[in-house]
Design a protein that fits this description.
The chain is α/β, with parallel strands linked by helices and 411 residues long. It is built from 13 helices and 18 strands. It has two domains: 203 residues, Vaccinia Virus protein VP39 (Rossmann fold, 3-Layer(aba) Sandwich); 111 residues, Rossmann fold (3-Layer(aba) Sandwich). Helix 11 links the parallel strand 14 and strand 15. The structure holds zinc ion (ZN). The site of zinc ion has 8 residues, from loops.
Length: 411
């Protein structure tokens, strides 16, 4: 991609077909994670459109943004949410259930962030390797004792990993395959790193949930693909890898983990059911995503109406990449939200891209005694609602934008 900031894609990222239909236009938006220290700094605006392949039905972004720009100073630190930390332990157990017992295993995580998901394997005495391009976060992982290298994972890097670390008994990638420009190359690399009898796993925000529960806020420039299980299975098979089982994940408000191996294993009932449901729902089709788009536009109007009706001294909660899409798409800026509360110290003191809302720690944000809160990090709703009530004794109005229709939960 050289130094160009973004390029339009001309063929499907999964099957290579060149007939793509634009199904949803969210407007020209700055990259969602470009938080900045002052609002004078100009940000580029890049088309944010969802396209759907007319051949395989895969939903995807119509442009690719230069990954050097997107990921070098990534500000999402996995370990910041309590839900995520708890899930990391469950994730490790589910993986180990499917692996041989009684010996230390070699475990690799692609895009390991701060090492939160490798930590439970370390506690059990396994040998670890994390790979992540964000230098600032890799430093944090290593300081925390999680062996991590700062690189973009690729099929080329896989060769170096095998000669240094060896073949993996288990390799996993959480929320990375949909984010990379060349998902095929990452899957090829994962296959190369994997021992003949090993277990691979890919976790991704599931297209079925995105579609049914209307998660249009998950469409942003780092998220190139919106994968169904059928699409992912087909991709894996192109690289000699076979998906045989799934498990559900609470992350992103509805993700799944797809397990795969180098040999065909008996497919689980859950796997078969999911594939059948996709077929019955016609999920991998342009018409399904056009319907999604219609519902997204209606959702925007409903949300803005709901906000008009609540006390105007309002703050947001959660300055995630997803919040950037919804704020920009709905035109919710600093005239509507006086600030956004977020627990991540990396984000505090900065301004949101395109909407110029300042981010503060929740402690500081609640000192201003807001009367209403827009729960942007709605995928952590339970955790945040508890915190609002117990820690800040907040008794005002909370607006929860997703899943499905926007609503004000009864307190
Ligand atoms: Zn396609």
């Amino acid at each position: 991609m050289n130094n160009k900031l973004f390029k339009k894609i001309n063929s499907c990222r999964i099957c290579g077909n060149d007939d793509l239909a634009i199904v949803l236009d969210l407007g020209d938006q700055p990259p969602a994670n470009s938080l900045r220290d002052n609002i004078e700094e100009e940000l580029p605006r890049i088309p944010l459109q969802l396209a759907c392949c007319r051949l395989c039905g895969a939903a995807q972004l119509s442009v690719s943004v230069n990954p050097e720009y997107l990921f070098k100073h990534y500000v999402w630190v996995t370990g910041t949410a309590e839900t995520t930390r708890k899930y990391s332990i469950e994730f490790c157990s589910r993986m180990l259930e499917r692996l041989p017992l009684g010996r230390p295993l070699k475990i690799i995580e692609v895009a390991s962030n701060d090492g939160t998901f490798l930590k439970p394997f370390k506690v059990k005495g396994h040998e670890l390797l994390g790979i992540d391009p964000a230098e600032n976060i890799v430093k944090m992982a290593n300081e925390d004792g999680i062996n991590t290298i700062s690189e973009f994972f690729s099929s080329e890097l896989a060769g170096k990993i095998i000669s240094g670390f060896g073949e993996a008994d288990c390799i996993f990638a959480r929320n990375v395959v949909p984010h990379v420009e060349d998902a095929h190359d990452v899957i090829e690399g994962m296959g190369r790193c994997l021992d003949e009898k090993g277990l691979g796993a890919i976790e991704f925000h599931y297209a079925g949930t995105i579609h049914n529960e209307l998660h249009y806020d998950s469409i942003y420039h780092e998220h190139n693909l919106y994968l169904s299980l059928s699409c992912l299975s087909k991709m894996l098979e192109k690289h000699g890898l076979f998906c045989f089982d799934i498990s559900e994940s609470p992350i992103s408000g509805g993700s799944i983990v797809a397990y795969f191996s180098k040999h065909r294993r008996e497919q689980s009932e859950n796997f078969k059911k999911k594939i059948l449901r996709e077929k019955n729902d016609n999920l991998n089709s342009v018409s399904a995503w056009i319907d999604f788009s219609r519902r997204a536009v209606k959702h925007k109007d409903e949300l803005l109406n709901l906000i008009k009706g609540v006390p105007s001294k309002m703050i947001g909660y959660g300055a995630s990449a997803r919040s950037s899409t919804i704020l920009n798409f709905c035109g919710i800026d600093r005239r509507v939200l006086s600030c956004i509360a977020d627990n991540s110290p990396l984000k505090q003191g900065k301004y949101t891209p395109g909407t110029d809302i300042k981010i503060f720690s929740p402690d500081i944000a609640f000192q201003s005694k807001p009367e209403s809160v827009l729960l942007l990090a709605w995928n952590f709703s339970d955790e945040i609602l508890r915190e609002l009530h117990d820690k800040y004794e907040f008794s005002g109005t909370v607006v929860v934008p997703f899943p499905g229709n926007p609503r004000i939960p009864k307190s």
